[in-house]
Request: fold
Amino acid sequence: MSVTPQCPPDAATRRRAVRIHLCTAAILLAVYLGWYAGVWPGPMGQDGYSLVANINQGGARYTDKDPAWLLYALGTYGLSHRIEVLVLPLVLLQVLILTRLIGWLYVQRQPLAATGLLVLVACAPHVLNFATSLYPDAIFSLAFVGLLFEIWLALRRGHLNGWTIAALFVLFPAACYFKGNGIVMLVPVAYLAMRLKGGSRWLVVAIALSWTLAIQWGGKVADLGRGHGALKPLILFETVNFMQTRPMNLWETRHMVTDRTREIMARHISQEDIDRLYDRDYWDTLWHQNQDRVRFRHMSKTDFRHLRSDFLTYNLWRNLPAFTASRVNIFLASALAQGGMVGPDNARHGLRAVDTLSVYNPFGFTRLPDTLNQLFHASYNWRFLLWSPFVGVALIGLCLRRSLRHRDPDALVISGTLLVQLLGVFLFSIAAEYRYLLIFFYAPLLLLPMVLVRAAGQTPPRAQAAA
Reply:
């Protein structure tokens, strides 16, 4: 496949681009709104139930979610007590991002690649399921990929255009702050600012800084906390892993953690519960559940500081095989979607447990909800193939290799950012949730255009329009 060389667009070219984007948007709107109508107000899951219940009780901070996501939830569901007010704007924003990404490939005369991404990625049943749910993972992942795409195009052009400015303003908070691992987005944003000149540079800085300050201020005013972070769950989960009773009782395995670690853990969980409640795929049994027997939430800052010190200086290295096995297990269980999965009709039962103005299936559809369930489960049965994030992972490796070979720093920053995300998910995940890898299922929307441009032999032009 080849990409048409770029040239200054004339009126006919612009009209063609507009038609393509409008047609792409119409298809995506029909699919996404049709799906959402059948699952209204959207799958809740445990996280969605916790979000709604805690907002109802005035304790949003106890969801342990990131402040930016909680601020959005408070500004939508919190003011209306309708779940659809939270979900529907995110569905429309995802349609807009996908229209931009897929429409760009159609404009570049790549119908095969664009149609493949439209059918296999954008309209995949599990993507539609996540996109209409109360989880932030879909909008976070797609916003992250969409913003990287706009940064890549801006770097190729050498200046900002309307698309990039709008994307920065709208997508930056979701891509950077809806989930803790979004913080790595600051690297490509800072790189873009450094590569630009004059007013464009300061506009990028102003957008990033204003959103950052606004979210920090809003989180403090609303007393939303900081979430549980990434390191604390990892240390608690893996320390419990390291302290599992060994039936062989070998002399060599009698001092797997420090004495101080044992003393700290004994104050918060018994050895019996360490053995009984540890699940190699999930940390939920140690944090969200069994709070009458597991008191990690009440661990003092001093105890955790000592636990962290012991983990980094002794416990981790003494248990390196167990730690590595745990990381590989959770990553593969997530990639193969062997963890918990919320189905499209989850709200049918979930709404009964919360006090909300939303109702399930208000349009009275009789066949649509069941049809969507059947589509989802048919896709689920082939999830090892149809849901695989490894295509995106392979493209990350390919783009990274080519950027190093061709000494292309722009492509290196883009692909390197996704590599950092991949390493972060591998090292810090404490639950075998497919949604944590959703960003890599979306990654071909960004990386395939990069591969096609490089395959066509195009250099990153500074004076040509890339959009």
